[in-house]
Amino acid sequence: MNQWNTLVEAIMEEDQLLRQYLTSLPRSAREDRGPDGALSFKETLGHIAFWDDFTVQFFQCKLDTATCMLPPPVEFEERSREALQRIHPLPFGEVLARYLESTGALIDFLKTHWEKLTERERHDFWVPLKHRRHHRISLGQAMGLSSGDEPDDGLERMAAGA
After folding, report:
1. Average pLDDT over residues 81-103
2. pLDDT at site 41
3. Which of 64, 71, 38, 50 is nearest to 128 (CA)?
4. Residues 6+ apart with CB under 8 A from 15
5. Dihedral pair phi/psi, residue 150, rounded to 5°
6. How crowded is the C-beta side of 80, counted as CA atoms within 13 Å?
7. Total-model pTM
8. CB distance 33 to 47 below 8 Å
9. Nearest to 27 by CA among 88, 96, 84
């Protein structure tokens, strides 16, 4: 199995775990923040979707410099706050759809463009996996859906190299 398959499978596994959380969380709690202001399920999905979209767009521009200019350097915390503000008024279903679309776009990009990426760029694509995993674990803890005692399922080892 090559490296992009491993990465794609790990992203898909994280997606499945988030979807399991969704099925175990009452509809009425989807927009409730966790203790100490932890992101709600809706905010978590919107946050992941925003950064997955950003990642795909950034690397598409890196591969197609003739028709696409790389965005200027960004202040990541500010971008995160802005993204959360934009998703706040949206219905949960729309945020979920954006999350599903961005996850699919990330996976499709990896499948389609992996061979065109440099070793450094390939390495950088482990960051979205770690990001997704971090937010899934935080969400599970905040919503009482997991204890935080994650089994050593291999994802941590795969992401550790990033």
Report:
1. 95
2. 94
3. 50
4. 103, 132
5. -75, 135
6. 10
7. 0.85
8. no
9. 96
Helix (H) or strand (E) holding 108: helix 92-113
State the sign of the Cα–Cα–Cα–Cα dihedral 2, 57, 33, 24: negative
List Cβ neighbours of 57 (8 Å cut-off, separation of 6 or more). Answer: 71
Asked whether the beta carbons of 19 and 137 are under 8 A apart, the reply is: no
pLDDT, tens only, 41-72 = 999 999 999 999 999 998 998 888 777 776 66
3-state secondary structure 31-93: CCCCHHHCCCHHHHHHHHHHHHHHHHHHHHHHHCCCCCCCCCCCCHHHHHHHHHHHHCCCCHH
